[in-house]
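Here is one chain, start to finish.
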Amino acid sequence: MNINMLRDVDDDAGFYGAACGRTDAWRGAVLNVSADSGASYAAIGSFRFASTMGTVTNTLGNFFSGNIPDEINRVVVRLTHGALSSVGFTAFVNGAQAAVVGDEILYFRTATLNLDGTYTVTGLLRGRRGSEYAMGTHAAGERFVLAEASKMIRVAQTVGDIGMTRLYKGVTSGGSLAATQAKWFRNEGAGLKPYGSVLLGGGFDADGNATLRCVPRTRTAGVWRDSVDVPVGEPSESYEFLIYADDTYETVVRTISGLTSPTTPYSAADQTADGLTPGETVYFGVYKRSPTVGRGYLSQGSTAGDAVVIVPPDLAPLPAPPPPPAPAPAPSPAPSPAPSPSPAPAPAPVPAGPPGADIVDGSGAVDPALYLSMAYGYGSAAGVTYRYGSPATVAGLPTLPLRADAGAINHGAGNDAIFAFGPENNTDSNLYVSIHATAIGTPNSGTSIADAVAWFQAAAVDRETWMQKPQLLWQDRVLLPPDIDYYEANNVVEWDLAADLPIVEYRGENAADSPSTRLSLFCTQGSPTRPAKMMCTGTYTAQNEASCEFAIGKIPTGIAVTGGGEFAFVSMWDVVNNKGQVAVVSLGSTSQGSTLFGSRYDWWHGWMDNMKPGFIDQGNYIFMKVIHYIDLPSNCKAPTTICATTGVHPFAALKYDGGGDISSFEYLDSPMASNRAAMLPGGADYERYAKGGVAVVASKSEKTVCFIDLGPLFAYTNDMYLGSAAKNLETQSMGYASNQWPYLLADHIQAIPPVIKTITLTKRPAAVLTTATFNYWSKDDQTREYEPDGPFQATPHYPRAWVATEDGDLYIYSLGRYAAGVKPTTPSPSDIAQVGTVTGLGTQITHLAGCKGAPGVDDPLNEAVVFTDRANRKIGLVKFTTPSSVTTTGTVQTLIQDSRIDPVMAIMTDNYSTEMNTLVVADYSGSVIRNYRFGQVVYAGSTPWSPASTLTAGGEYCGALSLPFKPISVHCSNVP
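Its structure:
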């Protein structure tokens, strides 16, 4: 680290080093240097102890109030290793807790642990040890190192080493020098540089002659003692004054050197010769000089006594690091590389303006400049065009009729809920079903996240009325979810920051009330200096908050959540390393309103003993932890869509209690440590949780589809919970540190999900979707002849993946034994095979959604899929038929087509109790959510509502909800 001295005993030409590992198993490292561009290396120091260090996630503001505590600014840091604490005021001002933030040395008083595992550091004494020059240079993503003398090292150097750029390798004990990546570093001799001077000023005599002066500071022995001057701090006293043309401090008109005191005359004649007016303010700078390193830090001020600015040094950039050595051949499938324990270097500046149609060149290869530009414009209008094509322009379509509102139910002052069928019945038992939705989009103006996220009621049944118009929740009548206020207050996002605008969103599309449908997850854009983040927002009865952040330079493009709420998988572009990846995020749930480690109460029958990240629970997330980044193949640098399945129907977790009431095996088997036997092979509850799965990722530009085996991840996670009492005990020590559960997969490579098959298409894939399982009564790869106790069919019926191309083809793939369901299997890559194609969906397909119910579809999650055709303003359905155990065909049906909409995404409301047959459509150009009904509303008990049939054969328009943004994603689910 090129920083000023932390201690007087370090008054030499050396520099500081700090290191840590990703786990507590790290046992130190050796620092090696090469003076011959990597031909040979020599050890120059060793790290015995891990430093407390990490990455700053916000931008620390400048501070201009001198030597008093900064109570305005804060540092938010995510530690790679260690923990932070608070100290009393006396210890604080005496430097009990010093930290290096970027290049600034500061003291801090308070460290508060946030729910997302970051610390908020406040009560700051800024610019310690002469580092004021760095106070205005901060940026998100910079380093944070706790300055602990016992853990850092001082690398001895000579004066001749100053300014020399060399290669360095920090090799973990037991590691390989050859396999360790080298980094360039130039020793700037910062510890020997004289501090910037203060109190710059001066005056004029009657003839306009000026006297310029400053007060110098010392690097060493700077303790203030009565009746004793502060020492010079250098072998000799020397100063250099710069005279500037004006208050921009850009043009030097005179340099005055060779001064032995911090003052100099500046005559009226010299002022005139330099183009200045004698007697008017003189703007000047001062260097205190060292006979060893020359100029120190530059201070700038004026004879008017302006606030003094200490200028950061202007350093030439380092050369690019040499490429790492090629890795040794790995067995197939090769484990993915470990995630970097330190933040990736900031990517190159973003080119102006994202491109339009594509990011590949004429040969189909990804263009690096277009790749970078589109990544940081993914949520812009050009990014939406790249993802979804141009807005719909087709004319001559029908305008579907809008049913008049029948009335409104009043839930209090101003809390009306509009219904289409009625009238309201307050005498009979009240069936209440409410479908809540979340949408994200691009603000119509400005860059505030408050104008980019919405929650609302998609549809509802209440007091025998039917509400088919999308509208504000009657509970609070606000469009912005309260979760967003929470994230802003806890420094997860900031208002009016373009980097914090959402760009992708997902809520599970399994059966109603399954864990993955509880909350929506969305990811932010990020920037070259601010990491993208993922967080959740819920329904009115499931509102826990959780968030995580990704390394800088990783741009999320899609989210998938496994059916039991175990994991999220986020496809992303790594613009720093020019590759595609999938982030593996372990999810943990708890009861509504409970804290991360506090007591729990019975909320929807989840685990009552403690949180279980990576294991099935009820999906009210309060914990997210990135545990790995899976590298995608070289021809999948730009993944644009992802989906995942475990093959387990969510109803598999249902269990009847002793009284015959429906509960869940999580609730009935709590605490897990006492009920492990029931979940082991042969136990009553062995067939209630996932044993594997598949994630399917597609890259539109590269015409590539990748299949990822989730089996190793589930096998490892399940074994940690159920394999032994000792392993189960480990899982109870949860947290965000690398040595806390869930562990980073880099330290458990047997658990890393491998890419098992990559397929290149001739057309551009626009969307992917997977089946949940064949149906609830199925086991493994077979289905019963009839429910619930009929015999299994003799031929397998494997789960499917569907890939839609932009121009309207739907490719059907068998996932074979990879979507393992509730029993482990032994799959082979040959299991992944195309088993059918359906054509004629449309001409601009943008999205595939789960079918939650439609006339003539018995198992909607697996026998049909909903598609959006933006060009033709159409939402349609593909219904599948299976003529044999190998092949699949399908028929295409238009659900609705309307002149009003510019649809980029459409989803179905849950058919929970009442068959709703309703679509929720994100109308991008209209900045609205529009609802459409394509079939009868069938009240609970199979009674059609009267009058319930749609007014035309083409469907019925249900109304719209205006938004302050152009929606790019929407999902909904039943409120549990």
